[in-house]
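Model it.
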Amino acid sequence: MSDLIAAVATGDVRSAIGVIRLSGEGAVACVDSVFRAGSGQKMADTPSRKLVYGGVYGQNGALLDMCLCTVSRAPHSYTGEDTAELQCHGSPAALGAILTALFRAGARQALPGEFTKRAFLAGKLDLTEAEAVADLIDADTVAAVENAAGQLGGAVKRRAEPVYSALLDMTAHFHAAVDWPDEDIEDFEAKKYLDTLTGAERALTALLDTFDRGKVLREGVRCAIVGRPNVGKSSLLNALLGFDRAIVTAIPGTTRDTVEDTCVLGNRKLRLIDTAGIRSAADEVERIGVERSFAAMASAQVILAVLDGSRPLSGEDRTVIQKAAGAAPTVLILNKADLPRSLDPSTLPEALPRLPVCAKTGAGLPTLSRILDDLLPDVPDAPAGELLTNARQAGEVAAALDGVRAAKAAIADGVTPDAVLTEIEAALNALGRLTGRTLSADVTERIFSRFCVGK
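Modeled.
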């Protein structure tokens, strides 16, 4: 058993409920030292997963809260260890006092992700499932929730396991034929496994192809907000975010660099990129800002080209529209709808959708969600959770795919079976790292360090 850890699992915020978790050797005895059931029964004598009502007390015997307590005994718990949980009222002060009492009773502060790390080390979760815990906590949209929940249910593992098993069978056959030549074992002939390798290649390619969609699901669609100076780009950014992220003044050219943040519009996550106003640069700093605006357009997946609806279309506006339309799907945002309109709609390209808005008040912005739904592909729908969502996973699948392709090439070149086996074993190792079968301690620490405390 591991040493005893404890943490507030619900964060340092005021809420109706606050949960404190313990895991490790002595978890039940530790909670018994601070919790007294209304019935007088010790938690050590209480069945697992039964909620018990009672009081929790500090070092001087002062009552700190009336709460619910439950214990789960190894190996039938989240971490595979003895665990306990106190479901308290969500006062950060009360939770801190209770946690201090638990520390005095022998627990220590849990590190970020340590509960889930212990679940992984105990074999309760594979690595893709453990990473899905963090993704589920960070999910901003329903689609992201469904994908993370599917991964938590083992979707990625189920796609990788058949490939791992097939490659392992090939490796086992080779070693059996070499190590026991006198047994009645069919000789290992690499060419007989070409169909198996081709199937593995097909499966890994299909899995790797999900990464681009999974990245969009997790990070958001790159959405550049562009336009000439003082048309309201930063005001639009602030309106979409719901708070003042960018500085807004009446002075043209306030924004000199890109400003990025994310928002959820409808069921779509957007990575908004506010850019410097596009015009003939007055100085070197502004010139660099304009260059970055063009770079943002080039890398964007959708562009919001902001125009001042209270002024006629200018040459700078036409440059913005031309550059944007040539870079990505573009929506013309006719800002300042609260002012008399001077922009003639007939001067705008008919092919581009347009939306009158007032960035100051947010008027018109709810319609933007529908326009983006028509303009962009559907949000990836993966209730089974089969989209790869992080670079580590994609890198291991790519490495496994490289190994399989190298093995096929080796067979085609007529090399010896042991050389083919070297490539197959490289693919196996990569798949082992994907699910956590084979993973170094430093990589494990890095993965779980991005988790929140208490999870």
